[in-house]
Automatic annotation (TrEMBL):
Pathway: Steroid biosynthesis; sterol biosynthesis
Molecular function GO labels: 24-methylenesterol C-methyltransferase activity
Catalytic activity: 24-methylidenelophenol + S-adenosyl-L-methionine = (Z)-24-ethylidenelophenol + S-adenosyl-L-homocysteine + H(+)
Uppermost EC category: transferase
Name of the encoding gene: LOC109708252
Protein name: Methyltransferase
UniProt source species: Ananas comosus (Pineapple)
Superkingdom in the source lineage: Eukaryota
Length: 373
């Protein structure tokens, strides 16, 4: 009798474990990255934890060092080696937020937010459009499929280049979507080589927005359109409120940001590099549905994911350090949610610009001084 009970217990527990294994190893969203394949980018297994410590220690330095322009691209690259697989596993192939749309899935809401970009830059067949900070190419594929345009994406992270190219091949969009590894602050493209350009939640990594906007301006043809979804603090943010400061600093630390900009700085910067600003709007404002609900609703999923990464690390399937990176992301989700709920932060301040057809007039010569007369 005892043996039968034991057999039943073992059977039930075994089946439970099998189910758990399949469920756990299966995708949390539809994405093509499984927990057993959490590699942590191009970092070798034994270096993941060190790299995480190195990333974190960056934020213990004075603010000026964190935003030191020359160091930022390397630190952003390390960040994406650490998070790319976890993002794909837990979020999907599009590394951005979107307003929630009643009655639509997250996947549809994401696609709509991306297709809006295609419409804003009037992308169409025969055009060459630049994706500034393309991640693993979720938006690029949606925009290529929707518009028929040829999309060229650039990302600083080599591992993302490999992932994006593999996804492009799988989606049979590799003839239409190209991916280049490079720094968007010094792009490897000739002047006026694109008909349009866009950046989705990527330029927030630039220490000086002027530098990336000036590069986009250079590579666009005259008359070309550029749209960007910017991460910014809103006018509700109060630098004297410790809760606000804690939320914004939490967002910066968990998302490799050298320093969030204020919403009202963006248009001035675009104009400074020569753009005409056609439209500017926070896409998170009503009637848009809250973008942060997807983060909040996933709390149970986070705990499940935490157990998954812990077990996989214990079994040495995932490298040491994954649990720490996952905890960092959990914390940043908390800060992002708070930023959304209080309204002090938006990840979708949209700005639409055009490169003028005629170059700006040269400044008039200074009046001659008396000595020359
Ligand atoms: C634009 C940027 C990235 C935005 C988002 C795609 C990511 C920001 C925070 C990320 C996540 C937080 C919690 C993770 C969770 C703990 C894990 O179990 C599964 C993945 C997360 C949901 C993860 C997914 C991507 C984010 C939402 C920045 C970097 C400029
Ligand atoms: C949050 S992800 C967004 C990716 C993509 N736009 C999307 O929505 O899926 C930010 C992207 O910007 C890229 N990035 C950040 N700094 C960069 C730089 N200096 N040069 C090129 N790419 C950069 C990152 O590598 C990453 O691909």
């Amino acid at each position: 009798m005892e043996a039968t009970a034991m057999a039943w217990t073992v059977g039930v527990v075994g089946l439970g474990l099998l189910y758990w294994f399949v469920w756990v190893m299966g995708a949390a969203e539809v994405k093509g990255k499984r927990a057993v394949n959490l590699k942590m980018g191009s970092i070798t297994r034994d270096k993941v934890k060190d790299k995480y410590t190195q990333y974190w220690s960056f934020f213990r330095r004075p603010k000026e060092t964190v935003s030191a322009a020359d160091k930022v691209p390397a630190f952003v690259d390390t960040f994406y080696n650490l998070v790319t697989d976890i993002y794909e596993w837990g979020w999907g192939q599009s590394f951005h937020f979107s307003p929630s749309v009643q009655g639509s899935s997250h996947r549809d809401a994401t696609r709509l937010h991306e297709e809006r970009v295609a419409e804003l830059v009037r992308a169409g067949p025969g055009q060459r459009v630049l994706d500034v900070g393309c991640g693993v190419g979720g938006p690029m594929r949606a925009i290529a499929a929707r518009s028929g345009a040829h999309i060229v994406g650039i990302t600083i992270n080599e591992y993302q280049v490999a992932r994006a190219r593999a996804h492009n091949r799988k989606a049979r969009l590799d003839a239409q979507c190209e991916v280049v590894c490079g720094n968007f602050l010094q792009m490897p493209f000739p002047n006026a080589s694109f008909d349009g350009a866009y950046s989705i939640e990527a330029t927030c990594h630039a220490p000086r927005l002027q530098d990336v906007y000036a590069e986009v301006f250079r590579v666009l043809r005259p008359g070309g359109l550029y749209v960007s979804y910017e991460w910014v603090t809103t006018p509700l943010y109060r630098a004297a409120d410790p809760d606000h400061v804690d939320t914004i600093q939490g967002i910066e630390r968990g998302d490799a940001l050298p320093g969030l900009r204020a919403q009202d700085e963006i248009a001035a910067i675009a104009a400074e590099v020569g753009f005409e600003v056609l439209q500017e709007r926070d896409l998170a404002l009503p009637p848009a549905g809250p973008w942060w609900t997807r983060l909040k609703m996933g709390r149970i999923a986070y705990w499940r994911n935490h157990i998954v990464v812990s077990v996989l690390t214990l079994l040495r399937i995932a490298p040491k350090g994954v649990v720490e990176v996952h905890e960092m992301l959990y914390e940043t989700a908390r800060h992002l949610t708070r930023g959304g709920e209080t309204g002090i932060f938006t990840p979708m301040h949209m700005i639409l610009c055009r490169k003028p057809l005629l170059p700006a007039p040269a400044p008039s010569p200074a009046p001659e001084d008396d000595a020359n007369q």
